[in-house]
Write the structure tokens for this entry.
Amino acid sequence: MRKRKPKKRIIQPDPRFSDPMVTQFVNNLMLDGKKSVAYSVFYQAMDIVQEKTGEDPHDTWKKALQNVTPGVEVRSKRIGGATFQIPTEIRPARKLSVGMKWLIRYSRARNGKGIAEKLAAEIMAASKGEGAAVKKREDTHKMAEANRAFAHFR
């Protein structure tokens, strides 16, 4: 490595839950630099979760994120002309960001009316251990398990 590593930026906590993780989630949710729109979408989704489950929406969201967060992933590596899928552990910061991105990606792919409702539905499903984002995590873990024989190439 030639240059020094950049300093980690400190993420400010969000106004409603005072949680920096929520701000990071909203930053991933944001499109075209419209942060206030992303915040309103997230808070609408939280209100929908509160309405439908009757539980604390922040706890439900955290549980959903925990259920979606992967532990291992497979990385491609070329060795002697062949490409192997090598299972590797994920560092904690990347785990969280990958989990957030999967939750957002699969909530956008859901059918429903409006992104807030789709996001709320995916959060509720993920907190129960179901939904497309949780399935993606399970598939990733299965793939890593299947390719465990190539772990020595790491």
User: Anything to note?
Assistant: The chain is about 55% helix and 10% strand. Residues 35-153 form a domain with the Ribosomal Protein S7 fold (CATH 1.10.455.10). The longest strand covers residues 72-79. Strands lie at 72-79, 82-89.
